[in-house]
Amino acid sequence: MPIHELPGKNQALLYFTDVLPEVALAIYFVVGVILTVQTIRSRAQAWVYILVGTAFAESLGYVFRTICVRRTTFGMYILMTLFLLLPPNTLALVNYKTVSKVISDSSAQPRQFWLKPKFVTWFFFLSDVFSILMQGTGGGMLTKKDYQSAGKAIVLLGLTVQLFFFACFLTIAAYVWRQPVYAITPGPKDRSPESAKNTVMRTIVATTVIIYLRNIYRVAEFADGYGGKIYRAEWAFYVFDTLLILIAFVFYVVFFIGNNFRRKSAAELTQILSQEK
Q1: How far apart are CA 138 and CA 219, in angstroms?
Q2: Is residue 45 left, alpha or beta, with left meaning phi > 0 and alpha meaning psi from -120 to 50?
Q3: Could you say which of 59, 72, 98, 157 has the lowest number of CB atoms within 10 Å?
Q4: Closest CA to 53 of 73, 69, 72, 29
Q5: Paired residues of 60 in beta bridges
Q6: What are the angstrom distances between the C-alpha of 254 and each of 173, 203, 234, 257, 273?
Q7: How far apart are CA 151 and CA 94, in angstroms?
Q8: Which residues contact 105 (CB under 8 A, 6 or more apart)?
Q9: For residue range 104-141, what is the model confidence (pLDDT) as tens digits?
Q10: How far apart are CA 95 and CA 52, in angstroms?
Q11: DSSP secondary structure letters along 202-256
Q12: How far apart are CA 85 and CA 120, in angstroms?
C-alpha cells in the first residue's frame, strides 16, 4: 500500500502513483551518470562532485520510496523521508561555492565582509549545515509518538531558516552578476567571458530559486501536518519536489558549471610557477 493514500482515487491514478517512484529513481540515476561523465571529462574542480553525489542520493531516496510502495516499514519510511528531504539542500552548497569562486578568481578586492569569498562559502555553508541538522534531527524525532510535535516544529524551523539564508544568498549572487569586475573563465561553448558569466550566474540564480520554491512547498507540507491535504496529495510531491529538483538538475547538466571551473593541468601549473619567478 502506498504511504500517501488518496481517498477515492481511481485505478489509473493508483497505477501512476505506484510506478512514479521507479521512474524518478531511473531518471535521477541517469542524471547522476551524466554528471559523473561531465565532471570527469571537463576535469572540474572537486567541489563539483557534490552535484554527482546529490543526484545519486536522490535516486537512493526513490529506491526507499519504491520499497515503501510495496511494503512499508517504519525504518524504511524514515530513510525515504530523510533521503528525499535533505539531499536537494546540498545543491545550494554548489551554488555558494560557485559564487565564492567567481569572487576569488577576480582581481577585485571586496571591502564588504559579505563579499569575502570565505564568508560566502563558509557562512552559507554553515547555515545550510545548521538547517540540515535541524531537519535531520526533527525527521528523526518524528519516529517517536511522544516527540512528533517537537520534531515537526524543528523541521519547520530548519526549513524556514534555510529560506531566509537563501534570500540573503540570492541578493549577493544578483550583486555579483551585475558587477562587471567579477569575471568567469570561458568554457568550450562560451563565446566570451561575459557570456560565460551570464550562463553560470543564470544557472546559479535559477537553481537557487527552484530550491527556494521547493522548500516553500516543504514548509507548507509540514505545517499542514501528516494526514493534511498537502501531505495526502501525492501529485503535489511529484510536482513541487520531484519535478522542481529535476528541473534544477537539467540546468546543471545543460549549463554545466564544471566547464568554467577546471582543475589546472601540470603544464598550466608549471607555466604559472615560471611566471611568478
Answers
A1: 13
A2: beta
A3: 72
A4: 29
A5: none
A6: 20, 9, 29, 9, 34
A7: 28
A8: 183, 184, 185
A9: 888 777 777 788 888 888 888 888 888 878 877 877 77
A10: 14
A11: HHHHHHHHHHHHHHHHHHHHHHH-TTSHHHH-HHHHIIIIIIHHHHHHHHHHHT-
A12: 24
As a whole number of angstroms, the distance between CA 258 and CA 38 comes to 8
Model confidence pLDDT, tens digit, residues 140-150? 776 677 777 78
Determine the length of the chain.
277
Alpha-carbon Rg for the chain, nearest whole angstrom, is: 21
Residue 207: count of CB within 10 angstroms of its CB: 24
- Amino acid type, 111: R
What cell was used for 151? 520534531
Backbone angles phi, psi at 2, to 5 degrees: -60, 150
Q: How far apart are CA 7 and CA 257, in angstroms?
A: 44
Residue 262 has phi, psi (to 5 degrees) of: -95, 150
